[in-house]
Design brief:
150 residues, 7 strands, 47% strand
């Protein structure tokens, strides 16, 4: 299954990271190619974004379902395509490295299904690592920007 994993050091505490990632409205707009999102409940939302799959650009509409909140260190979610046939999951996880420093990991795994799967999955293999890195870094830098004035 195509996936991406990115780990980085963040100049923020685990608690500060949690304050941010526990609110979907805050980090949904940081998804590369973001268009729109709607929160359906505390654990469910729909997201729209544009992605470039090499030879084709696609608008993706997906449902995000939070499957586990492990305060203060991990949020896990499932992804289900609404306009395209794919499914996947991901998470953000943080571990304390000190009072105001953490290690943050972002993970995404997405698998296309159906007639285009043989063509799309190799493309996902090439773009998911970059997409995961961009999203994880965007969240980390946003949190650092909020808490850097301490």
């Amino acid at each position: 299954m195509p996936s991406g994993l990115h780990t980085m050091q963040v100049e923020a505490s685990v608690g500060e990271l949690w304050k941010y990632v526990s609110v979907m409205d805050l980090w949904a707009p940081l998804v590369p190619g973001y268009i729109d999102h709607k929160v359906l409940s505390e654990k469910e939302s729909t997201w729209k974004f544009k992605t470039d799959l090499g030879f084709m650009k696609k608008k993706i509409h997906l449902k995000v379902n939070i499957t586990d909140w492990q305060e203060p260190s991990k949020v896990q979610f499932d992804l289900t395509g609404i306009n395209e046939r794919f499914h996947g999951h991901g998470y953000f996880e943080s571990k304390s490295l000190g009072k105001d420093t953490s290690k943050m990991t972002g993970f995404l795994e997405i698998n296309a299904e159906g007639a285009l799967a043989k063509m799309v999955n190799p493309l996902l293999n090439s773009i998911l690592p970059e997409l995961t890195t961009e999203l994880t870094e965007a969240v980390a830098y946003k949190v650092e920007g909020i808490y850097s004035s301490r």
